[in-house]
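Progress report, Aim 2. The chain analyzed during this reporting quarter is listed below.
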Amino acid sequence: MVTPLKGDAASIPTNAEARKVIDAWDPASDEAAGLQCKAYGAPAIMRVPGRLHISWQDETTLKIETDAGQQTRLFHFGGQVAHGAAPTWQGYSTALWEGSAPIVNPPVPFGLGPRLGARSRSLEVTTTQLRAGYLRKNGVPYSDKAVLKEYYDIFSEPNADTWLMVMTVVEDPTYLAVPFVTTSHFKKLADASGWDPQPFTAR
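Predicted structure tokens for the chain:
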């Protein structure tokens, strides 16, 4: 992925406060401060080109690993709430299944199937307790007050290709004039032969 030019915030509904940060962005300063991963936080990571590995960490925690930046996200089911946890790049995510429809033979897409039983559902995830980061690698900011909402859906094409669609909604009273909405798609692969986690890069 090519880093956009400094100052390029096209399609992102930034406000005047964000523009100050965008104009002052200096990747060398981020590297010197050990903040190269600011563009790999939860509000941005699903837009970074790469592969996902999805599995269940335990009975109530879904784990998503990214090969881009070697990030790990944990989705907590059952109403679990983090108490006093410090903000992190991936924050704290609560998840629930929404919308259901009975099906005869439940598929096992992206590792989700075993917990679906006989039902196919969309997944809704809300992430808070975020450490301030970037929506793009060129310094377009989100603050530690940002709230991330995501909606995960699975669909198949007539040729049997299976896709995971993720709609991402970032709300940030500090740097966004209105919610920032994007959609990303991931194709299910036959095996893990292409899985090659790489550390994050600043540029």
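The chain has one domain: 16-187. The chain is about 10% helix and 35% strand. These observations will guide the mutagenesis work planned for the next reporting period.
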